[in-house]
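Hi U.,

Before I forget, here's the chain from the pilot set. I'm dumping it here mostly so it's searchable later in email.
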Amino acid sequence: MTTAEGERPGRRGEALGRLVLTALLAVLGPLFVRMPLTADSSFYDSCARHVLRGGALERDLVILFPPGMVWSLAGARALLGGSSEAARVADLLVVGGVIALLALWLRAAGLSRAARLGAAAVLAAFYLTATEWVHCQPDVWMLLPALAALHLRRRQAAALAEPQASAGRAFARAVLEGAFWGTACLFKPFVVVPGAAAWLTAALLLRRSPGGWLRRLVPDALGLLVGGLLVGALWQGWLVQSGSWAEYWHNCRDYQADYYSRTLPWKTRLGEMFTRLPPWSLANVPAFLLAFAFLGRAASRRRPGSEGRVDACALLAAFSLGWTAQANFLQSQLNYHMASALLPALALVAAGAGGPGVPRAAWVAFLVCALLALGAQRAVRPARLALWDRCWTDGDSPELRDRLALDAGLFWTPEWVRLDEVADYLRAQGVGHGELTCFSASTVHLHPHLNVEPASRFLYPSVFFGMFPGHRARILDELRHAPHRFIVTDEVERALASPEIQADFPYGEPVVFEAGRYRVHRPSRAPVETAPAPRR
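Structure:
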């Protein structure tokens, strides 16, 4: 066979990969962009709008997480506008960057361009068909700076393997890498787990390089620490400048112990890890096997620089295991936690199935399983795909959002047509900043939709009751004395509450408007002060 003849299958594979990836974006992209946002996304959106108005986020609202997601969403709002479609376009760009970085990593792992395109198509299919509860969340967004840091870790490991490696250059590179890890920690500090796993694996690889390997790790570790601390210092400066430092850390001490008091048995968590996002979550099985295999091969080699594929696969394996551990055992194991772990896990499976020397049958099996997983998703049902043209022609359509929602029927998923009727009523009443409390999870969308500030520090009152059960009385007391004109509740969520909660504030307040499951209450007690002006 001539060289040209040998290249034809690869070219055909590349063309097919581009075609599939383009088709996925063309068919599922518009449906994705027009899907509704979740309550969490609207929560972050309200926080971002508060920042853009010049408010002191951590002082004015009860926020326990670092501001990475809020800052990012505020930047997206400033550039792309205030619509839900703009937030989803930003989400699509972030995830596109994540997939691009994983595909770039697969090149270092020895995969052909055709295989990398196929892997990118699988990753895109997984994310575009996931429910809206996965989208526009900090766990996926923090993958972008974390993967950028991982790429820098691989280059640093290769540079440190050289006997004449410069300590000054190693320190400078580590500072930059540490800044990326620190940026990821601004979303959630759990990123330190996969970051530490990647560093330890790089140290393992370096251990077999000739002469003075431990000495070369010192400037590397110091640089990482300095880079991360610089980012942390910028955040603390933000808190001090906004007058929020004392309030933020007081809230953290006061509320977080209550939050982390809720635990699940490890056996339950282990079962959820393989069943929560079916059938994609089954990819964790081969991902675990491949991760330990790659790490074992890396540890048994004498020279770390002789096989770049093994080193790259070992680093991705450590990163994937660390990310899976923090998502499933340190956090609450919600869908978006687990989805963020599945992206590097799927890339790791692709690295194992499509690498050089692996039988083609393994890659074919990987693609067939991905195709079956795609076909099992509700997002690709014919009735939903038939809405594709309306995604281009309908304006701000609550009816279309109802039909595109994949989490419909759950208490936190709104009935958008009815919620829009509530918004029209409140708009007609001239509701302004500090005059509205969205009590139930499915109603929190009204704050960004009406572009108004909440009436209290608690953007998410009913959710906070569940997250901080020991603080329920304090939260309820503050809500009773908030200067709201209107409170919006959801009868579906009320039915799930205990009888004493159903009879308590705010459900017992006079109802002035009803729309399906939603009730608009006007508190019987007049506000003790006029509604505050927009914070500047």
